[in-house]
Write a structure and sequence with these properties.
six-stranded mixed beta sheet, alpha/beta, four-stranded parallel beta sheet, Rossmann fold, 2 domains
Length: about 325
Amino acid sequence: MPVATIGKPMTYGIGNTSLVHARSLEDELGIQGIYLKLEGENPTGTHKDRLAIQHVDDAIIRGYDTITVGSCGNYGVAVSFVACKSNLDCVVFIPDSYTGSCIKQIEECGAEIHVVKGGYEEAVVASRDKAMIEGWYDANPGNKNTPTSMVAYVDISDEIQEQLDETPATISVPVGNGTTLAGIHLGYRLLWHKGRARTIPHMLGASSEGNNAVIESFSKGLQEMEDLPPEVIHETEVNEPLLNWHAYDGQEALNAIYDTDGIAIGVTDQEMLEYQRMLERDDIYALPASASAIGALKRFLEDKNIEGKHVIVLTSGVSNVRNQRKNTSTDIC
């Protein structure tokens, strides 16, 4: 239930991640002007920290003492981490099909875990339903949370603009629910409106081939999102972060792609693993799902002759992996 005391929102080192010039990747792809936004530098190792702090701050301001989310891993870790730092109770609903290592991290942050029969979407529904019953803050994507969630990623646009000192021609983003891509697009729309950006970059999305509603809707030329049959989703250890038969912020992502004459493509597990290996030649470590965004840039520039600088948002990327591998499995709270 809501509490009367309102804490002071903090940043906990979230944001202001590095933008690095990927010279080896340029040579591999034959494309000049590639830059990597390393979201893995956030405290728990992914871009989800930005989303978590946005919702935790909102919960604090509105007087809640408990926050809940359904997650397959990274978002659950991020919310439990920021909630722990902010003295909020946290309840995370995890699908029973999940096999990753994030459960330990969530528990280390003191969050309560509920295992839900089914997949990611079922975990979100269970979390949302429980929030209504118990009076908890619902930090799940979609519905009334879409504006708050999109604002969480506006800062990525501001940072890119300042770090490059110009507007990139393209921005490539891995797509799950579509929130990150939609939020970055919103950020550049605001920069353009304020006169800080002369143009809005082409927004490029990549996800697991045949396993994401945003990608499949775009491939059919649909203007409105269409869900996939849940039974067609094929989960692997490589593609798990990208799977989504019902993308909660997919319509906003689809709108952003059409608005900027961008693309949304599906890539195979084999391609993701190859892109991951390419990044390691630049001393960058990222999950294969994060590296999928390379495929969107490659495909887009094969079809269109567009010059300029190209930013790939690595939702889990961290530099100098050989000597400074980021360890987020212990003591993050």
